[in-house]
Amino acid sequence: MEDFWKKLSEAKRRALLSDYDGTLAPFVEDRDEAFPYPGVIERLSAIRQSDTRVVIVTGRSAREILRFLPTDPPLEVWGCHGGERFLPSGELHTLPLTSAQRAALERASEIALALLPERRVEKKPLSVAFHLRGLSYDIGYQLKELLDTLCDCGLGLMPFDGGLELRILSCTKAMAIETIIAEEGDAAMAYLGDDLTDEDAFSAIKGKGLSALVRGEWRPTIADVWIIPPEELLSFLDRWIAASR
Ligand SMILES: [Mg+2]
To answer: Which residues lie below 8 Å from residue 223, measured CB to CB, with a gap of 6+?
Structure first.
């Protein structure tokens, strides 16, 4: 870590990339109430003011993140695992779905709603997520069997911490990270994430920046360091602010 802080303090350009749920915000029963840990918004704003590009990379839609992390100007957010890109200027770019993909997502929602309550089926702009936390393994297995038939036309059923998501296979957090790395060149950068879907982002930043697993319990990961939220997360952000001065 000391090498990273030294590099950060000497860098002309800096970029802090982070996942949202489970990383900057604790998991809560109602995902509409997943507000960030106290102190996160203020620190992200201070980090931005110290000439760091701050980017949120998430499976949620960009619009939802802007509600949880209101800043002025708004943050750059790559939503829907990289399928959406929202810029601080207010521009939103969204990857177009094919009509076959749109129909498959619609069908997947119908199938899932026969098995799960509505609050567990999350329709997003480019995917459908099935929240299975606390349910029996059988339900997940049954759902997977039913949905696997919809996995042609470029869609895939991908696991995340607490469920499954039917989404565009070519959209990954790694794609978002690679684009930012290409734009930032040799900037000092870090990526923070908690979930299985963050592993490809950790892999994309390997050798070019620091990757940090932010999680209460350790799990096997390719990330460089492990941060326990919220205390160690807030300390990390404070250290970033101090190193940027
Ligand atoms: Mg997460």
So the answer is: 193, 198, 202, 211, 212, 213
Distance between Cα 161 and ligand 1 center (Å): 8
Cis peptide before 96 (omega within 30 of 0): no
Region at 185 (left for phi over 0; alpha for psi -120 to 50; beta for the rest)? left
**What's the CATH architecture for 99-168?**
2-Layer Sandwich (3.30)
Which residues surround the ion ligand 1 when the cut-off is CB under 5 Å? 19, 21-22, 194-195
Name the band, by pLDDT with cuts 50, 70 and 90, for residue 162: confident
Can you tell me the distance from the alpha carbon of 221 to that of 230, in angstroms, rounded to the nearest whole number? Answer: 19
Q: What is the pLDDT of residues 91-139, one digit of tens each?
A: 999 999 999 999 999 999 999 999 999 999 999 999 999 999 999 999 9
Alpha-carbon dihedral angle through residues 51, 81, 164, 101, given to the nearest 10 degrees: 160
Distance 158 CA to ligand 1 centre (A): 14
Q: What ranges do the domains of the chain cover?
A: 2-94+171-244, 99-168
Report the separation in Å between the CA atom of 185 and the middle of ligand 1, taken as the mean of its atom positions.
26
Specify whether domain 2-94+171-244 bears CATH 3.40.50.1000.
yes
- Residue 72 phi, psi (nearest 5): -130, 115
